Amino acid sequence: MPFSLPIHNLYQPADPGQHFPPGFVWGVATSAYQIEGSATADGRGESIWDRFCRQSGNIADGSSGDTACDHLRRLDEDLDLIAALEVDAYRFSVSWPRVQPLGQGAWNEAGLRFYDRLVDGLVARGVQPHLTLNHWDLPQALQDQGGWANRATVQHFVDYALGVHRRLGRRVATITTHNEPWVMAKLGHEDGIFAPGLRHRATAMQVAHHLLVSHGLAVQALRADGCAARLGIVLNLSPVQPATDSAADQARARLEDGLLVRWYMDPLFGRAYPDDVLVHLGADAPQVQAGDMAAIAAPLDFLGINYYSRAVVGADAPFDVTRSGLPLTDMGWEVYPEGLTDLLLRVHRDYPVPPIFVTENGGAFADTLAAGQVHDRDRADYIASHIAAVGAALGQGVPMAGYMVWSLMDNFEWASGYAKRFGIVHVDYATQRRTAKDSAHWYRRFLQRRRAQQAGTVLTTTGV
Ligand code: FCB
User: Does ligand 1 come within 6 angstroms of the Cβ of 33?
Assistant: First the structure.
């Protein structure tokens, strides 16, 4: 009974109050490895995250996604939960090793059937499915052959994309090729803190390039296959600010902006890789084949942006976030909603962007579940203030198409394990019981109010 809490007991953050257009898509997001569990069930192959979690020291609490939210076995309950939120859309990812265990060749019918049920279940409940092909869980069998550093993986990804499209593509609203290529390349292959745990900058940059090429080739292949879903990619972007106005800090911020934002945005919108970053990389710059840059620039139907905070960088020492005076989330990330407006205005100014979805936004906060309630005022405020930031960008002409909260429910937060909770629905991992937090009630109420405003009626429920 996730929505048993009477509405008048709720803390109500200010109504973000902006006039979002009819058709603006409101959603919640998850990813396969973070919620599904059933890691070895029904013929699923091993993913690089299964392997990475088993190597000691990689995950803060020594956990893995083996069980996670047990979503695979609780699909119907979770579909009802999504529907109860009254969102327009649900963003999820397909686990490549669940549907194609070795990453090439044979398909796993049981895995495909699960996503059939998921997509059909969403459509039956009036919720648009937004499908991501790659949210980091590469089949380990492909990693054994070099993974994303191996050019052959590009073609395997295109084949995988086509297979998923043929099975599910007609019933989904959007298809995202990759979630956050920067994270996979940098955190996975240069910093070694995410799977596959490599520490080699040249490899990381080659991976980034292969991710972009595979994105472009997959978009072309899906279009040629008659894809009706809107096609795009999801980037993690932040405004990058210098820690001080010293020339050295400013130069460093410009370079970080190149590595995080321009390295991806420039080629997606038809430009070469940024010169300043190429000079910085020197011999670590990737091998680029003839035709690659044209492939990467395949037209996008939408751009997905995941936004959590700004990045502040100093030339000499890392920026100390505790000194900024901004509130911090449980991840230690600054709460900085104006950064989202700034970012959206900037990408709109600098690039010919298609409609933009904020595909992830939310906050980890240390929650307390008591008497079946979680009073997560901090998370509700976080979400409300970022929705207002999107509204501000909309008001200044940025073509915003939707906003999705990260996350539907608490889940396996990668290297942080289960200690960090991003959900608007609480998960008790011992019992798998789901409890809507105040932020979920607020979000649902906010959506109800939007709809009522658009329908020209006024909601009069007590206390709101
Ligand atoms: C993003 C990821 C998502 C989640 C959030 C907190 O980088 O795409 O899976 O972990 O961060």
Answer: no
